[in-house]
Amino acid sequence: MSASAPSASLDDAKAIVLGYFEDISAARYDAARARIAEDATWWVVGEGRWPIGGTYDKDSMRALTDMVRDRFPAGLKLTVHGAVAEGDRVFVEAESHGTRRDGRPYNNSYIFIFTVRDGLIRHRREYCDMFHANDLLCGPMDDAISQAEPK
């Protein structure tokens, strides 16, 4: 009887995280946000080494999401290549693809570690190519390119 309970719990945590990625990829940002606890935190690799590195609360996560939505009006598509659940943690290998407002392509690879408790995401750690992310997320936009007429 108790042998199936941990598996069900692991499956639930994994389903919550995978649902979060599906919501983000489909631009259902409110649905994705509903999967996150009010007191959740989000840590991004590179604290002190680039503007996005560091720890965020739920409100500052929204500001970061808004910045990404502004730079990638068609959204970022996240593809999950693998997910493993252990205890209250879910480990995800993922990749993003998108086209920035000025036409520059973005493709990054990630390892995420989520903590899920009581049916909500409580913490997220994000490891990515911060140099590429810094260039396209924090670097200057070339709006002249996005407004130019095709030749």
From TrEMBL:
<dbReference type="InterPro" id="IPR037401">
    <property type="entry name" value="SnoaL-like"/>
</dbReference>
<feature type="domain" description="SnoaL-like">
    <location>
        <begin position="19"/>
        <end position="122"/>
    </location>
</feature>
<protein>
    <submittedName>
        <fullName>Nuclear transport factor 2 family protein</fullName>
    </submittedName>
</protein>
<dbReference type="Pfam" id="PF12680">
    <property type="entry name" value="SnoaL_2"/>
</dbReference>
<dbReference type="InterPro" id="IPR032710">
    <property type="entry name" value="NTF2-like_dom_sf"/>
</dbReference>
